[in-house]
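Narrative of accomplishments. A recurring question from our advisory board has been how the design workflow behaves on a single, concrete structure rather than in aggregate. To address it, we present the structure tokens for one chain from the evaluation set, followed by the sequence designed for it. No filtering or post-editing was applied between the two.
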């Protein structure tokens, strides 16, 4: 199936804008970015930058179906890069369901839901369970779909327990289970190429720039900083910090048995380069 128009909901967001940039760089598709109407009046620099590179910015009320269906007319591939509402409590399922319903009415051909992270066992964490609930709806919808997993963002690998300033690593598990990671310079390119891969239809794509244990990432940090780091393993989850629970699940429950990297035309950016950049940022 050939696609002409790709619409990215949340395309100005942290992950979404890298996806949008990769599509604009590729240049093969007409790109539309959906934004919430409440943000219409602000001067979002990212929206302006994407528009200057050729994206059409479309403002919608996600809770007005007619509005949303109209905005999606002519879309071949809809990529949801929406985030859950951490303040208001709307889950990944709640936030994306209006989009999926409108996509069906607008005859969108393929839906790529807001996964873009770590594939985890069911019941490992409420966030990923919620994404699974939404995937079930996508499959029932009859639309074509692709799920894309690329692990933890390498530019945020410090969330896996690496404190560059203190040269201290604290791991939730014993440091032996692999954690997949990908640089933000690569994951958009994987999504672009997936549209040309017949095997991505109604399937999942699992890629990683690196798939190593925390101790292996630590070796790179030690090499780059030129010093031995203090290491603490089996760090306890601090209940009040929601992110801790998620990162503990990532460290212990990531399920990346097979990688699809060899189906793509490019080699990912080496993780050592990203770690070097992170270390340089901290040491100023
Ligand atoms: N692998 C990783 O390490 C990693 C890291 C971060 C995120 N992620 C995943 O990437 C996806 C996107 O996350 P993100 O951090 O990029 O999100 P984000 O920047 O917080 O939000 C993305 C965009 O979605 C729109 N949005 C936010 N809340 C919304 C809501 N309640 N209803 C409708 N639209 C809303 C906003 O666009 P407008 O304001 O323009 O409407 C926002 O810019 C999620 O699935 C997340 O789990 C993965």
């Amino acid at each position: 199936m050939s696609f002409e128009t790709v619409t990215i909901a949340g395309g100005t967001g942290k992950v979404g804008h890298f996806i949008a940039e990769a599509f604009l760089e590729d240049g093969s598709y007409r790109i539309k970015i959906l934004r919430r109407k409440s943000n219409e009046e602000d001067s979002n620099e990212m929206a302006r930058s994407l528009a200057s590179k050729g994206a059409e910015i479309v403002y919608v009320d996600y809770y007005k179906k007619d509005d949303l269906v109209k905005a999606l007319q002519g879309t071949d591939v809809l990529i949801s890069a929406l985030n859950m509402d951490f303040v208001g409590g709307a889950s990944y399922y709640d936030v994306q369901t209006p989009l999926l319903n409108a996509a069906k009415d607008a005859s969108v051909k393929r839906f790529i839901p807001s996964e873009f992270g770590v594939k985890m066992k069911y019941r490992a964490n409420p966030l990923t369970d919620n994404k699974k609930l939404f995937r079930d709806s996508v499959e029932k919808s009859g639309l074509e779909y692709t799920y894309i997993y690329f692990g933890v963002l390498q530019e945020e690998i410090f969330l896996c327990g690496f404190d560059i300033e203190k040269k201290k690593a604290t791991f939730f598990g014993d440091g032996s289970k692999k954690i997949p990671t990908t640089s933000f310079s690569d994951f958009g390119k994987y999504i672009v190429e997936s549209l040309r891969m017949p095997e991505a239809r109604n399937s999942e794509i699992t890629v990683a720039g690196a798939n190593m244990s925390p101790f292996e990432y630590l070796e790179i940090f030690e090499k780059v900083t030129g010093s031995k780091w203090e290491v603490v393993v089996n760090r306890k989850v601090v209940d009040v910090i929601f992110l801790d629970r998620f990162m503990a699940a990532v460290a212990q429950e990531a399920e990346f048995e097979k990688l699809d990297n060899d189906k793509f035309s490019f080699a990912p950016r080496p993780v050592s380069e990203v770690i070097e950049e992170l270390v340089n940022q901290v040491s100023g």
